[in-house]
Amino acid sequence: MNMRPARHTTSNAEAGFTLVEIIVSMFLLALLALSFLPLVVQSLRTSSSTTTLATATRLVSEELETVRATGAGCPADNGGAVMPPTFTDPRGVVLELRTDRTGTCPGLVTYDVWVTKQAAPTVRVAAARTLINVVTP
Fold first, then answer.
1. Would residue 1 count as lying in a domain?
2. Among 128, 98, 125, which Cα is nearest to 110's?
3. Minimal CA–CA distance to 137: which of 102, 94, 106?
4. Inside any domain, residue 12
5. What are 6-62's pLDDT values in tens digits?
6. Partners of 117 in the beta sheet?
7. Quick one: which H or E segment has residue 124?
8. Enclosing domain of residue 35
9. Nearest one of 129, 4, 115 to 52, comparing CA atoms
């Protein structure tokens, strides 16, 4: 009977990962990360514009609710240009709230509200229009 302990032999191929295998896997991971980079950039742009849009929509809605609650009167002649109020959204974009009232008193007055970016005052970010029935006492 043979009483010698059995020897386990391992070849070098089974010892672990080689340097070439590690480099190839790192290269594949880098390609995968680069393929997601445009998606990340686009999502950051969308997030920024969505934040600005949400802030502008909230400003328009608050202005309309204030006008409805107070029963805005007839358009007043201010006799000069009035600077629109400005607000800053969480991303740092400066927004301007603009209003326009048209109509005859007593009667229906059209009340327009819109928000523009201070950097581009001709582009409306959010806008709304409502009719208010003005009754004189």
1. no
2. 128
3. 106
4. no
5. 665 655 556 678 889 999 999 999 999 999 999 999 998 898 889 999 999 999 999
6. 95, 120
7. strand 120-134
8. 18-134
9. 115
Alpha carbon distance 84, 56 (integer Å): 14
Cα separation of the two ends of the chain: 121
Phi/psi at 110 (5° precision)? -85, 125
Please check whether residue 13 lies inside any domain of the structure: no
The predicted-structure confidence for 101-114, as pLDDT tens digits, reads as follows 888 777 788 889 99
DSSP class per residue in 40-96: HHHHHHHHHHHHHHHHHHHHHHHHHHHHHHHT--SPP--SS--PPPEEE-TTS-EEE
What tokens appear for 92 in the block?
């740092």
pLDDT of 131 higher than 50: yes
In-domain check, residue 121: yes
Predicted TM-score of the model (pTM): 0.65
Q: Cα separations (Å) of 132 from 28, 60, 65, 66?
A: 63, 16, 12, 12
Domain count for the chain = 1
